């Protein structure tokens, strides 16, 4: 059964973070709240004028107000404590390997954690982030990753990470969108938890058709050898970040490329997974 309570916001102070001794995925009480706009006079005036012309609204419920209203931010359903240890997806009972992970003889990922369920209103937020040119959603969405990390015993979940690496986008897709949503998410996450962002460690060496609508086997074949890691990963522990974790095929292909280039361990962190 999934626990529907909200994570409690904790300090991003690294010293405090490392002393967390929570032994289980804690029962949180509330997601972090959205921050009010601040900054210098002219940018704020420009924003105010734009807001007059195009009144801002919540990307999920479309009510006038911030990009993500507090009601929608709090309505996101976190992944509960009973998960598959292999892929981090929610399960009725905690399992070492779920049905979808059992076929893996050697999983290139040493562990995966997923913040929330890919259901409304998070689904609408992710859709706007990826397909409606709303890169500003990176910060409010990254807060779910930060909140998840802060409910975990840091050292047990992702031991001494050397670098955070977003799942790369192929250049044509990057040019079409103008940004890599996983990289923006990873950047906002790194800013909060003070870990180094190492986007250049992993590259997508060929385009792959969208994974949407493919079976698990098709997804695996689709992304096979699509990624290559640089020598910088040699001996390093990586934390991969992506927006949605479905079968894990993309993240595992990234992890395999990093291991092939000599990485010592690869962990995964994703914003959302299907129910
Ligand atoms: Zn809303
Ligand atoms: Zn699994």
How would you portray this structure in words?
By secondary structure, this protein is an alpha/beta fold. The chain has 2 domains: 41-74, no CATH class; 76-273, Rossmann fold (3-Layer(aba) Sandwich), CATH 3.40.50.2020. It is built from 10 helices and 6 strands; from the N terminus they run H-H-H-E-H-H-H-E-H-H-E-H-E-E-H-E. It has helices at residues 14-18, 41-53, 70-75, 122-131, 138-151, 154-157, 171-177, 181-193, 216-223, 249-260, and strands at 111-117, 163-166, 202-204, 227-229, 237-244, 265-273. A 4-stranded parallel beta sheet has the order 1-6-5-2. A two-stranded antiparallel ribbon has the order 3-4. The N and C termini lie close together (11 Å). The protein binds zinc ion (2 copies).
The helix content is 25-40%
Broad shape: globular
**Attached small molecules:** zinc ion
Q: Count up the domains.
A: 2
Major pleated sheet: 4 strands, parallel
What CATH architecture of the largest domain would you give? 3-Layer(aba) Sandwich
Given as residue ranges, the uncertain stretches (5+ residues, pLDDT < 50) are 1-24
Provide key terms for this protein.
4-stranded parallel sheet, 33% helix, globular, alpha/beta, binds zinc ion, two-stranded antiparallel sheet, disordered N terminus, 2 domains, Rossmann fold, 275 residues, 6 strands
């Amino acid at each position: 059964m999934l626990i529907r309570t909200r994570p409690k916001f904790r300090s991003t102070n690294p010293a405090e973070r490392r002393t967390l001794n929570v032994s289980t995925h804690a029962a949180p009480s509330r997601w972090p709240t959205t921050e009010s706009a601040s900054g210098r006079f002219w940018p704020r005036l420009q924003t105010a004028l734009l807001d007059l012309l195009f009144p801002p609204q919540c990307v999920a419920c479309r009510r006038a107000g911030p990009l993500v209203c507090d009601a929608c931010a709090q309505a996101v359903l976190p992944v509960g404590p009973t998960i598959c240890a292999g892929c981090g997806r929610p399960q009725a009972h905690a399992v070492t390997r779920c049905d979808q992970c059992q076929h893996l003889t050697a999983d290139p990922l040493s562990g995966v954690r997923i913040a929330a369920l890919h259901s409304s209103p998070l689904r609408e937020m992710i859709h706007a982030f990826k397909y409606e040119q709303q890169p500003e959603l990176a910060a409010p969405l990254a807060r779910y990753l930060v909140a998840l990390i802060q409910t975990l015993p840091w050292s047990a979940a992702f031991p001494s990470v050397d670098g955070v690496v977003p799942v790369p986008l192929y250049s044509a897709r990057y040019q079409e969108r103008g940004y890599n949503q996983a990289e923006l998410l990873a950047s906002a996450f790194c800013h909060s938890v003070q870990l180094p962002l190492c986007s250049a460690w992993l590259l997508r060496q060929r385009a792959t058709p969208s994974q949407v609508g493919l079976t698990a086997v098709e997804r695996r074949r689709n992304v096979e050898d699509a990624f290559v890691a640089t020598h910088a990963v040699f001996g390093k522990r990586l934390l991969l970040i992506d927006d949605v974790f479905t079968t894990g095929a993309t993240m595992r292909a990234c992890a395999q490329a990093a291991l092939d280039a000599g990485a010592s361990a690869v962990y995964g962190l994703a914003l959302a997974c299907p129910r």
